[in-house]
Design brief:
single chain; FAD/NAD(P)-binding domain; five-stranded parallel β-sheet; about 25% helix; binds iron/sulfur cluster
Length: about 425
């Protein structure tokens, strides 16, 4: 029995199953049979991971699953057909709808990162859409505490029920200094400026972006690059005094009589205790990006966490032969488990010049090779003219605390408190700046 006319009936289904299951042709046949019984047919990719694509398996402004809806529509069915798969860019959405290959576009993450996505779409404010970085952390419950949902780019998600208690009313306009133009510094500056404070943002390099600037280089980090560019765009749009190329000192902040100072100075890589680690052929992962050509053809990356693997993948994509040494028994163990790590793994497995060794403890670095001990305690060596360190980072807490007392209020945000990912940087910056 159809409820058409009374309420809409939508069927959501994978358009095909992995090998051995039903096919696109079967779905087309189903659509014909369902004609008159359902109003909307929402077609998803073959499995859950693929329906939540990441930078690893989605290229900017591509439409990986549009051929599914195109095939169903070409069969002549009259029901509304809907596609899904990483859509966010408003211009791209317009183009896809105009193509006639789908009637609707389903989105979830775009609305998590932008609860006002509909308003922005209606008003044509594509440049203000906050890019979802496709990290899929919003799918992971309990990892971040039992009471909260998380979104890497939207610090308010999951807090809607208490937001008015969390954010006090502004009582006076203050003079604010933010030190560090990475994601947490930019977010603190934006929130403070939006609350009507007079903000000066100091960044010692000549560009904003901090650690996110690395996303300009790796092919699969484009969602993060888009997010960084969005933050920079917003900072330049609102009334923030951006001081590039200026290393703020505690004395300078003191002299300027700021009401509050935010330290967002980030973290610094840790140097592991390995013989030869101070060699000229050893480089930190953060210094690889933009300097790829200076590295030898054979590279060993020490540290197989998310950053080490991404750096190794980027080097493999730029022509280097890369071996990642990981102390634990799993590569990229810190990557988001749901709808992310599998796509990450599929991407590194595709790279012919990328390999890794687990349970490997590096013992010595020389100009031309790296020695390591495996799980059985047996020593091996690998040819390597360049060695990349991706072990861990140290929060620049001591550096940040030098500004304590230079203004009436002092805040540490982002990973100068403790090692933090984008989600933690954004949340700590928002939480501090929204209390001004
Ligand atoms: S948590 Fe990540 S994937 Fe989910 S909506 Fe936010 S930015 Fe996008």
């Amino acid at each position: 029995m159809s409820f058409m006319g009374l309420l809409l009936v939508e069927v959501i289904m994978s358009v095909e199953e992995p090998e051995g299951g039903y096919s696109l042709e079967d779905t087309v046949a189903f659509a014909k049979l369902a004609e008159g019984y359902i109003d909307i047919l929402h077609l998803r990719a073959a499995d859950g991971d693929l329906s939540h694509p990441t930078g690893f398996n989605l290229r900017p402004n591509t439409t990986p699953y549009i051929h599914y809806t195109e095939a169903v529509k070409a069969s002549g069915v009259k029901m509304v057909v809907e596609t899904a798969g990483g859509y966010l860019d408003l211009a791209q959405c317009e183009k896809v709808i105009a193509s006639g290959h789908t009637d609707l576009i389903a989105m979830a993450r775009s609305w998590i990162s932008n609860p006002d996505f509909g308003t922005k779409a209606y008003q044509g404010k594509g440049e203000d859409v906050v890019p979802c970085i496709k990290c899929n952390k919003c799918h992971v419950d309990k990892l971040y505490g039992p009471y909260l949902s998380v979104c890497s780019v939207n610090p308010l998600i999951g807090l809607e029920h208490k937001i008015y208690d969390m954010i006090p009313l502004k009582t006076e306009s203050k003079k604010i200094a933010v030190i560090g133009g990475g994601p947490s510094g930019m977010e603190a500056a934006l929130v403070a400026a939006e609350r009507g404070h007079k903000v000066t943002l100091y960044e010692k390099s000549n560009t904003l972006g901090g650690q996110l600037k690395h996303a300009d280089y790796a092919s699969f980090k484009w969602p993060l690059r888009d997010f960084k560019n969005y933050l920079v765009r917003q900072v330049n749009k609102v009334n923030i005094d951006v001081q590039l190329g200026i290393e703020a000192t505690p004395e300078m902040i003191c002299t300027e009589n700021y009401d509050a100072v935010f330290t967002a100075m980030g973290s610094t890589p840790i140097i592991p205790k390995i013989s030869g680690v101070a060699g000229k052929n050893v480089i930190f992962a953060e210094n690889v990006f933009g300097n790829e050509a200076a590295l030898d053809e054979n590279v060993v990356v020490i540290g197989g966490g998310e950053i080490g693997v991404e750096t190794g993948m980027h080097l493999a994509e730029t022509g280097h032969k890369v071996v990642v040494l990981e102390l634990q028994d799993k590569l990229a163990a810190d990557a988001t488990a749901i709808h992310y790590r599998e796509m990450f793994e599929a991407a590194w497995q595709k790279l012919k010049k990328f390999s890794y060794i687990l349970n490997a403890r590096c013992t010595e670095i020389s100009d031309s090779e790296v020695k390591y001990v495996n799980a059985e305690g047996i020593e091996h060596k690998i040819e390597a003219g360049s060695v990349v360190l991706a072990v861990d980072t140290r929060a620049k807490q001591a550096e940040a605390l030098k500004y304590y007392g230079t203004a009436n209020q002092f805040f540490m945000v982002g990973d100068c408190q403790t090692a933090a990912n984008v989600q933690q940087c954004m949340r700590s910056a928002f939480a501090a700046a929204s209390r001004l």
